[in-house]
Amino acid sequence: MNNLLIENAMIVTCEHTNTEKTWIFGDIAIADGVIKEIGQNIKQKYPGFDIINGKDSLVIPGLINCHTHAAMTLLRGYADDLPLMEWLSTKIWPREEFLNDNDIYWGTQLAILEMIKSGTTCFADMYFFMESVAKASAESGIRAVLSRGMVGIGANAEIALRESEELVKAWHGKNNGLITCMLGPHAPYTCPPEYLQKVMKLADTLKIGLHIHLSETLTEVNDIEKQYGLRPVKLMDNIGLFDSRHVLAAHCVHLSEEEMEILANKKIGIAHNPESNMKLASGIAPIPGLLQKGAMVGLGTDGASSNNNLDMLEEMRTCALLHKLSTQDPTVLPAPQVLELATVNGASALGLKNLGSVCPGYKADLVILELNKPHLKPLHNPIANLVYSAHSSDVKTVIIDGKVVMKNKEVLTMDEEKILYQSEKVGADLALRR
Q: What is the pTM of this model?
């Protein structure tokens, strides 16, 4: 593994403990995949390190996408402008019946290419044929938290349990720790309590966490309450889903005060997906209230068929503006806090340690953006410019686990031309299958 030294850069640290000064000028020394030192004029201390010129550049922690269905890139633009359940039941689920492992491989390659080029260094994924997702992730060098989606009310319920166990045993901790796994029960409306008990038992046996959709729509909340006499979060707490294990809950849009307290007190990772929730008109998650209660909130895009991109820079801007508007308070979710959702808080939501900050001892997942652009001048506040002004096209270099995976906008670990060709071909074929 090459040792790197980024010199003369503006650095946004995203350290929880460093509240007075959130950006500095200086150098970053990286050795064995870890940030070794940050300081000024430290180049002479690290002879032989490969130099990356940071002049006119901004270094930030790699962005962490807390909730995706990566291979849904193949269904980007396939079904739009519909409510969630109609979108799922009439368009997405019927088309997903035709998916195969080759589709998932190329759809995931396309997603990872898009994510790396827009500054995402880690993503949490729940989908099918996860062996193909793991393979694509390992080849690209991205950090990934993978879950096989599980539906407990159909003929494949037991198969999903078995395949999930196989995924964990084959891939958890592999590729130098870049790939970790969780179990992925889809949602309370597709996984009844008796099935979730099996999922929890398997998770405890394998010593891993869970990734689940939760309280995404009012329809879901009302149906669950009618069936079980409890709202979804309360039901999950009642059956013990949140006890003694890490849980990542996607969406959490429709919550009572009691449910917000439960999520905060049980330290449940929450994946907030503002653009997908807006596009599907699912609602606005009470993120300011959750954060006030100390909840562990990260940011995600959801799948590219409900967003319709995987651009975390854009997601940050949307997140900030949405909650200012919905609360009628321009002070809500200021830029530094939104950046934390996409970095250090996202790592916590995924249960990943020593990730999401630019500080010694942390994993060297870093993104370098160009600052010498018209829309990024003048630079009164680099974090404000990053959240409110930056574009994915400003991302210049991406480092994951101390390895340069994109340099000067060229992804070094992937064949971009081949991926674009194959994904177009596979996507067109998928749309015509009968």
A: 0.97
